[in-house]
Structure formats: C-alpha cells, structure tokens
C-alpha cells in the first residue's frame, strides 16, 4: 500500500508526463477494443449467414424424386455441408402459402405444379459455397441455383481485412505506447537521479529502487485500459439501437456484461504487461547504480 | 573492524588517489582523516562504502573483502555504514523528517516505527522542531545535522563523515562534531571523519591519520593536525 501511495505521489509531481503516458495507453486500447468488437461482430454476421441455407437449387419439372435424392446424396458425400434439405413441390407450396397468407391475390390459382422442387443447402464454411454451387449447377436436372456467394465472399474478405488491419494498427499503437512509456519513465529516472544515488548509498537494493517505476508503468497500462473499456462500453450503449437497425435480423444486442468484463480484464492485463515491459526497458537503459 | 591492506587506488585518468595504504580501525574508534584537498580522504571513504574498488590491495570490512562482495550484497554492506556526505545530498523536495526517514524506508520498516525512530534521532541532533521544514529553510548547521541524523537513524556500525564542517562557522562546526562524538560514545559507532579543519582536530584529541599525496604520512593516537 505504501508503495502505491509513493507511486501516486510521484505521479502528482509531474502530472503532464503521466497524463501523456495514460492517454497513449487509452488511445491504443480504445482502438484495440473497436477492432476486437468489429472482428467479433463480423464473425457473428458470418455465422448468421452460414447457418442459413446459402444455396437453393431449383429443379426442372421433369426431375424425379429419385434423381433429386441422388443429387442430395452426391452433395452430402462431399462432407462440406451442414444440412441438405429436400423441399418437394407440395412443401414449396405450403411455404409459399405461409409467406403470403396475408395477400389472397397471390394465393389464387397457385398449385404445386407452379412451384419447383428444391434442395436447400447450408455449408459448414462459407468458403465452400463455390464448390457446392459448381456441383449442383453441373447437374442437368437443375434449372436455377440461387446463392448469396458474393455477399459471403465479401464478408469473409472484410473480416480478414479488419483482422489484419487491426493487428497492424494495434501493433503500431502499441509500439508508440511502449516508446512513450520508456521516454516518460526514463525522464523520471533522470529527475530522481539524486534520490536514486542516495537510496543506493544508504543500502537500497536494485529492486527497491526499480519497484516504483514498474508500478508506475503498470498503472499507466491499467488506467489506460480501464478508460478505454469504459469509453467503448458507453459508445456501444449509446449507439446500440442504430447498430441493431443496421444489422436487421442479425441479433447482436444486448451484449453480455460478462463480455465487457472479459474485454477489460484482457486489455488491462495486456496494458499492464506493456507498462511493466516498457518500464523494464527504461530501467535497463537509464538506471545506473554505483 | 576496517582494514586496508596495501591499498592503491588509481583512477582511469591516471591520477593516483591512494598509494600503498595499510590501516586498521577497531570497532568504536573515532578517527580524523586529515590532509589537504586532493590528499585522498574522500577516496578512502568511498573504498569503505564500496563506491569504488582498490586498483590493488584489499579493503576488509568485518573481515569481508569488499572486492568479493557480489553486486546483490552491496546494499547489505551499506546498511552497516552511515555516511554524512561532503555535499550533504539532502533531497530538496522532501522535509527534514522525510529525508531522515529514507534509510528506514529502504529497510522496509513500518510507518509507526519510522515515525518513532526519526523523532528520536531528530531529538538527538536537536532538530525535532524543524521536522517539517524543507532543506532550503534550514541554516548551514541544521542542514549538516539533518545529514547526520539521516546517517545514524538506521543505527549503523560505522559512520563516515566527509568534511561535515565544511562551510560552517567555528562554533557550529564544533557543535556538529560534538553531536558526532556523542553518537560515537553512546552507540559505540565507529566514526571516521575526513576533514581539514585544524581547530576541530586539535580540540577533540582523537586518533589522527594524516594523508598527503595519497600516502599516510602520520598516524597518531591522540594526534594533532600539524599543517607544517
């Protein structure tokens, strides 16, 4: 406790440097939070799309049930599908009637002969849509294949780009935070040169002298990560209606408080580690004890 | 006990600070190290605190060769030694109390214990009423006594004082050395004081080691500072 009090006292003596270091950490971890949420959000959207039938193959009228079953088996044999559902003409009519039950005009004079039988296919991984589509299209009994292939491909691409961009951007910000912490703690070591020399001469161990600087580094990290987590929580709370409206049927909110606790804990631990490692580098570089 | 055995200290710039020093200081002694500026007095003290190492020969503190003390054990040696520095080395942004408390903080003593010990030692050097003052608010003698208080607060076995009466008027200088003598007598602390203050040395009649050009030219039990 005394050590923490002493560290806080040191911070009060040069608050602007402390503020610079804490703000650098806040910015780094705020941006990191945004990327984490974007990546997780992207994954949720992708999972939503992957769980829906992504390929619908409509058959020609002359396709027999056994021919359709044969194609179904062929697709299942690839091992790439999650579910393959055979929808007969009668079932298609039932679905059509259900969807349009409020519009009697559309239901008039519609019989099962008007609607084609189909296979609703969902794949395990979005990347396999193209391969399955190819197999289905090559069958002569298939009249038309509907697939959101492009949308999924785009989503996969975007998620990958966000992930990669996030790693590059966060690494850059982390490096800047590192350098700021090394600089700030280096300045503090220089400012306390006399005190360090006196402490060394009265018998202080190297660890005793270094400990407040490690605590200081960890504190910058903890404060930065905590402010960043709070900001991102407030941001998501405020904009959740808009984001949900944009995402439509894809349910993302409410985000569990546990997620924010994990996010804060992960960021706080990373930030404290950055602070401590930064302090260690500064101490190694600038702390000279006779 | 402190022993110097054929100790020579040569600095990297070629200057020979001490040459072939043989010296034995028993526990509880009060010694004046005298000599003109550049005679090697400060180097001798720095060899004891292991701020520097001898170029040749050995320095033994309680039969332990300072050269063989590993880096991690140096703090343990320094905890046995209190030092009053020539330039005081007080922290200007800390009060008298806080300055004196430093050696106890280093030893991780409890706050209540620190408070008690510091108050007791400030009383000993008659500075209790100045506990909350900063060094700039003190007179020369008070600064010097604060430095002494810091040096003795952790009850060291050895007390080194490097020119502690430097810029003080004769009366204040005498008062400061009286404080040191009291500590030597009451706590049986070995006291080594480097000085070139003739009046002080001649007044207190202690063992005097005269250094000149890095060599011991005189070592007398109840010596006098003979400047001739």
Structure in words:
- The complex is a heterodimer of chains A (290) and B (228).
- Chain A is 72% helix and 8% strand.
- Chain A is α+β, with helices and mostly antiparallel strands and 290 residues long.
- Chain A folds into 2 domains: 2-48 and 153-286, no CATH class; 55-147, Alpha-Beta Plaits (2-Layer Sandwich), CATH 3.30.70.
- In chain A, strands 2-3-1-4 form a 4-stranded antiparallel beta sheet.
- In chain A, helix 7 (149-191) packs antiparallel against helix 9 and helix 7 packs across helix 10.
- In chain A, 27% of the residues are buried.
- Chain B is an alpha/beta fold.
- Chain B has one domain (28-50, 72-220): Rossmann fold (3-Layer(aba) Sandwich), CATH 3.40.50.
- Chain B contains 7 helices and 10 strands.
- Chain B has helices at residues 41-48, 74-78, 96-106, 111-124, 140-152, 170-187, 198-204, and strands spanning 2-10, 16-25, 30-34, 56-61, 64-65, 81-84, 158-162, 190-195, 207-212, 215-220.
- In chain B, strands 6-7-8-3-9-10 form a 6-stranded mixed beta sheet, sandwiched between helices. Chain B has a 4-stranded antiparallel beta sheet with strand order 2-1-4-5, with helices on one face.
- In chain B, helix 3 crosses helix 4 and helix 5 (140-152) runs parallel beside helix 6 (170-187).
- Chain B is globular, with a radius of gyration of 17 Å.
- The A-B interface holds A 2, 13, 194-195, 197-206, 208, 290 and B 49, 51, 72, 75-79, 82-83, 85, 89, 91, 93, 102-103, 106-108, 111, 150, 154.
- Chain B: GO terms for molecular function: ATP binding; ATP hydrolysis activity; transmembrane transporter activity.
- Chain B: It holds the Pfam family ABC_tran.
- Chain B: Keywords: ATP-binding, Cell cycle, Cell division, Cell membrane, Membrane, Nucleotide-binding.
- Chain B: Belongs to the ABC transporter superfamily.
- Chain B: Homodimer. Forms a membrane-associated complex with FtsX.
- Chain A: One of its GO terms (cellular component) is plasma membrane.
């Amino acid at each position: 406790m005394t050590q923490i009090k002493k560290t806080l006292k040191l911070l009060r003596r040069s608050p602007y440097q402390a503020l610079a270091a804490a703000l650098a950490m806040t910015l780094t971890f705020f941006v990191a939070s945004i990327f984490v949420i974007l990546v997780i959000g992207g994954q949720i959207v992708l999972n939503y799309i992957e769980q829906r039938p992504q390929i619908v193959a409509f058959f020609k009228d002359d396709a027999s049930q056994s021919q359709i079953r044969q194609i179904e088996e062929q697709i299942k044999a690839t091992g790439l599908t999650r579910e393959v559902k055979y929808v007969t003409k009668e079932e298609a009519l039932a679905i059509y009637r259900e969807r349009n039950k409020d519009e009697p005009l559309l239901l008039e004079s519609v019989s099962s002969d008007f609607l084609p039988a189909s296979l609703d296919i969902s794949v395990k991984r979005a990347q396999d849509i193209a391969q399955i589509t190819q197999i289905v299209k090559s069958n002569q009994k298939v009249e038309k294949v509907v697939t959101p292939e492009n949308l999924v491909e785009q989503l996969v691409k975007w998620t990958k780009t966000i992930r990669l961009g996030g790693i590059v951007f966060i690494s850059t910000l982390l490096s800047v935070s590192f350098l700021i912490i090394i600089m700030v703690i280096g300045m503090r070591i220089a400012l306390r040169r006399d005190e360090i020399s006196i402490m060394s001469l009265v018998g202080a161990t190297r660890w005793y002298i270094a400990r407040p600087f490690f605590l200081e580094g960890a504190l910058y990290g903890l404060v930065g990560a905590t402010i960043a987590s709070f900001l991102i929580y407030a941001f998501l709370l405020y904009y959740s209606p808009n984001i949900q409206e944009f995402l439509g049927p894809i349910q993302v909110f409410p985000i569990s408080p546990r997620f924010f606790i994990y996010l804060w804990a992960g960021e706080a631990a990373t930030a404290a580690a950055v602070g401590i490692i930064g302090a260690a580098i500064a101490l190694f570089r600038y702390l000279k004890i006779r | 006990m402190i022993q110097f055995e054929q100790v020579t200290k040569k600095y990297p710039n070629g200057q020979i600070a001490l040459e072939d020093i043989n010296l034995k200081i028993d526990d509880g002694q009060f010694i004046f190290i005298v000599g003109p500026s550049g005679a090697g007095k400060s180097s001798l003290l720095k060899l004891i605190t292991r701020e520097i190492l001898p170029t040749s020969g050995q320095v033994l503190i309680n039969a332990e060769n300072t050269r063989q003390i590993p880096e991690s054990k140096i703090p343990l040696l320094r905890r046995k030694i209190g030092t009053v520095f020539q330039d005081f080395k007080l922290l200007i942004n800390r009060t008298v109390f806080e300055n004196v408390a430093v050696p106890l903080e280093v030893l991780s003593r409890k706050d209540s214990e620190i408070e008690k010990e510091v108050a007791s030692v400030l009383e000993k050097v008659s500075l209790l009423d100045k506990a909350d003052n900063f060094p700039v608010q003190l007179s020369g003698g008070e600064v010097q006594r604060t430095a002494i208080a810091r040096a003795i607060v952790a009850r060291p076995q050895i007390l080194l004082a490097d020119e502690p009466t430097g810029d003080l008027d004769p009366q204040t200088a005498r008062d400061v050395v009286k404080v040191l003598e009291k500590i030597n007598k009451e706590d049986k602390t070995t006291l080594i004081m480097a000085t070139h203050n003739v009046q002080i040395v001649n007044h207190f009649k202690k063992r005097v080691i005269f250094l000149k050009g890095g060599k011991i030219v005189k070592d007398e039990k109840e010596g006098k500072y003979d400047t001739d």
